[in-house]
């Protein structure tokens, strides 16, 4: 055991999307350290190389308005951009950005350089009277006033391909068992979830004549502001399965891990395996999308072909499609089963109800997706820092943001499968848009002071005028008649939002 025990206000366990956001947000408010088990896991996009999507893009815009880094990372590594639901109303339009995996990870490592990083692995977490002790694999120990746990899908994880079961969270990656000790020691209820990923293909072996190209759009704004450097654009490609593919999936579906009963955890409804869609909905023709993984990457991501079928079946299935007659598979599809805490074990601030000072964030809370994990990481990091300073925690209202909806559902709703944010569950979804995210989140950003000098605010001119209203000895107040402003003016909306900012604490 090490002779010296370092003391921090907040310690973040995990370096994925939730861990980075938690450490970045907490470090602005308190002395923070982040524990990284493997540098290659920092900001890693384990599944699809894309940020955003339906309801997710609004969540990322809200996060960016609060000082989160995911929006900046996505804009800085963009390779292909789509605007979804363009034919529908503004409230449901969504930005989806394909990113370069290596660039995204490099930018994530740049953020860690500004933080205190400890390269080690946590083997146990012990709650003391007024502090929390973390035991590390190297034999050293850390003390913290608050801890954010963001271990993702590595909690007692198992990887499945057909009948093959390997105790890892991802091929060639170690799993983490420290949370199981915590669950059993303090009686925290937990269960098993699963997620699947499709095969990666070598793009030089694909017959592109049998695919439909999907060119990138060039929108004016990204997640963090104007897109000034988005010049190199890559194509996505679409194709469909055929009757021969359907027949093979129908015949061999019984060999997948869920169908054989080897994989018992509940899977996401939005990322169901291609064989399950054949078994349950009898869909003969399914759309698949070939997505680039980066500018210099030889492999591509086959979105829609989530599977855990045996390797030989995956090869046979792919080669039924003309585009993949001679395809080379760089990485086979697989499923991962992992531990998550049950709904209700955390409150709306993401603090464990049974253990004060320990905050959970990311997929360990039962969510799925990079965006949901990053949002939880930011809130857990801010609340952990405020807890270490004996300040009240922040709880968001689901009426004013997707942030609040996410925290409400994770803390109160009984989850039977991995949770994904959905606009259908937002009571005021017509008002929760990407472009007004700063208007909605500004009071919370100012309350937490998590944006450095407010540089990430898109409408800086409105913010400057808004700051005048916040001065305690303000000499004048906004008079709509004097300035010719109607009640629907953006500035008046800011004033009204600030008056009701306390609702964010409920």
From TrEMBL:
The keyword NADP does not apply. It comes from the Bacteria. Its cofactor is FAD. Residues 9-390 form the MnmG N-terminal domain. InterPro entries: FAD/NAD-bd_sf, MnmG-rel, MnmG_N. Homodimer. Heterotetramer of two MnmE and two MnmG subunits. This is tRNA uridine 5-carboxymethylaminomethyl modification enzyme MnmG. The lineage of its organism: Bacteria, Pseudomonadati, Pseudomonadota, Alphaproteobacteria, Hyphomicrobiales. The gene is mnmG.
């Amino acid at each position: 055991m090490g002779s010296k025990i370092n003391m921090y206000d907040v310690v973040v366990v995990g370096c994925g999307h939730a861990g980075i956001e938690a450490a970045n947000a907490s470090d602005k408010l308190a002395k923070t350290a982040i524990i990284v088990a493997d540098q290659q896991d920092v900001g890693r996009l384990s599944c699809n190389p894309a940020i955003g999507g339906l309801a997710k893009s609004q969540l990322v815009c809200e996060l960016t308005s609060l000082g989160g880094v995911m929006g900046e990372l996505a804009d800085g590594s963009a390779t292909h951009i789509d605007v979804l639901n363009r034919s529908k109303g503004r409230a449901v339009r969504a930005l989806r950005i394909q990113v370069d995996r290596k660039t995204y990870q490099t930018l994530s490592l740049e953020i860690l350089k500004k933080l205190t990083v400890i390269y080690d692995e946590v083997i146990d977490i012990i709650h003391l009277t007024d502090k929390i002790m973390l035991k590390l694999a190297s034999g050293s120990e850390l003390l913290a006033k608050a801890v954010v746990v963001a271990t993702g899908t590595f909690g007692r994880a198992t990887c499945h391909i057909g009948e093959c079961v390997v105790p890892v969270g991802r091929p060639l990656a170690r799993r983490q068992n420290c949370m199981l000790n915590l669950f059993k020691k303090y009686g925290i209820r937990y269960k098993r979830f699963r997620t699947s990923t499709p095969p990666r293909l070598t793009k030089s072996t694909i017959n592109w004549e049998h695919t439909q190209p999907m060119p990138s759009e060039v929108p004016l704004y990204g997640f963090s502001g104007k897109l000034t450097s988005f010049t190199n654009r890559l194509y996505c490609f679409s194709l469909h399965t055929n009757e021969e593919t359907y027949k093979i999936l129908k015949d061999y579906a019984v060999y997948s891990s869920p169908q054989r009963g080897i994989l018992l955890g509940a899977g996401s409804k939005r990322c169901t395996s291609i064989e399950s869609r054949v078994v349950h909905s009898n869909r003969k023709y399914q759309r698949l999308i070939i997505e680039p993984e980066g500018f210099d990457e030889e492999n591509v991501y086959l979105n829609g072909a989530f599977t855990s079928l045996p390797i030989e079946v995956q090869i046979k299935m792919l080669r039924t499609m003309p585009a993949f007659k001679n395809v080379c598979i760089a990485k086979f599809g697989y499923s991962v089963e992992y531990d998550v805490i049950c709904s209700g074990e955390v409150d709306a601030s993401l603090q464990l109800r049974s253990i004060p000072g320990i905050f959970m964030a990311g997929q360990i809370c039962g969510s799925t997706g990079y965006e949901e994990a990053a949002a939880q990481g930011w809130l857990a990091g801010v609340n952990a820092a405020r807890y270490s300073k004996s300040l009240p925690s922040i709880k968001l209202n689901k009426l004013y943001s997707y942030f609040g909806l996410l925290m409400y559902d994770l803390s109160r709703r009984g989850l039977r499968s991995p949770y994904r944010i959905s606009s259908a569950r937002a009571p005021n979804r017509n008002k929760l848009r990407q472009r007004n995210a700063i208007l909605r989140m500004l009071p919370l950003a100012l309350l937490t002071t998590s944006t450095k000098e407010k540089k990430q605010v898109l409408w800086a001119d409105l913010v400057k005028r808004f700051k005048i209203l916040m001065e305690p000895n303000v000499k004048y107040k906004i008079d709509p008649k004097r300035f010719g402003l109607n009640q629907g003016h953006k500035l008046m909306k800011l004033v009204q939002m600030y008056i009701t900012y306390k609702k964010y604490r409920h």
